[in-house]
Design brief:
alpha/beta, Rossmann fold, 7-stranded mixed beta sheet, 9 helices, 7 strands
């Protein structure tokens, strides 16, 4: 990226951030950051068996956390290369499988599913797989973007090559970890809650988020997006969220 474009983007991000800071805190929370810093740290406990589905090269639990808490961690990903690229000592076992068709053995205390469901073509199958991995009363912690978010709609219509060029030009630091094809199948709160229920999973916590940073690189577009988001909320309510977090528990048989 040349210096002019880098400076232009930086100036727009500063302006967008300044405008965003005028909004209520509830509209400024970043769902992905909240998931990692507030939800997951309180979810993992000593001696637990933790499955990280779709974590690939970036699992939540690092080697130090594993040692300190005595965790058993299992990585599940469709890409063997992603699992192999994880830091040494983070997984006790890896499973190369398509989550949409995978059947677990019901041995997990905790399943972590961070920014994975939007990438599977069959969310119903993936959630059934998560349910099959969990022990009775085991919990799954799910973060995903909403299909109805403006950035998700753009992601669905733009050619993959275009999306990668734009993403890597604006945020070159994510090149090795983002840019995977996305489907957003049933990735809206009302639909995914129905799937949870069908899969035998009880919702114990739901958090909705109204912030994403994609449009901050061009402040006029960011302002238009914020206005659109407010109007869309009046019609769609929860389904207008940018991202969401669910904690679900497997029901007793």
């Amino acid at each position: 990226m040349n210096n002019w474009l880098r400076n232009f983007i930086a100036a727009n991000r500063r302006a967008s951030t300044a405008l965003n800071n005028l909004l209520p805190q509830a509209l400024r929370r970043d769902g992905n950051r909240h998931f990692r810093t507030h939800i997951l740290p309180g979810a993992v406990y000593a001696g637990a068996t933790v499955y990280d589905v779709g974590g690939g090269s970036q699992p939540f639990a690092d080697a130090e956390m594993k040692r300190r808490l005595g965790l058993r961690t299992v990585g599940v990903d469709i890409d063997a290369g992603e699992l192999a690229a994880a830091p040494a000592g983070t997984y006790d076992a890896v499973i190369v499988a398509d989550l949409c068709t995978y059947a677990g053995v019901g041995d997990a205390d905790i399943v972590i599913c961070q920014a994975t469901l939007e990438h599977v073509p069959d969310t119903r199958g993936a959630i059934l797989a998560i349910a099959s991995i969990l022990k009775p009363d085991g919990k799954a912690y799910v973060f995903a973007p909403c299909r109805n978010a403006a950035f998700a709609r753009l992601n669905l219509v733009l050619p993959q090559r275009w999306k990668e060029r734009i993403l890597y030009a604006v945020s070159p630091e994510v090149k090795d970890h983002q840019g995977f094809p996305a489907h957003y199948d049933h990735c809206v709160p009302t639909q995914i809650e129905q799937i949870f229920d069908t899969a035998g999973l009880r919702v114990v916590q739901r958090e909705l988020f109204w912030m994403s940073s994609y449009f901050m690189v061009f402040t006029p577009l960011f302002v238009v997006w914020r206005i659109w988001q407010s109007l869309f909320y009046l019609a769609a309510r929860a389904n207008a969220a940018e991202t969401f977090i669910y904690v679900v528990q497997r029901k007793q048989a």
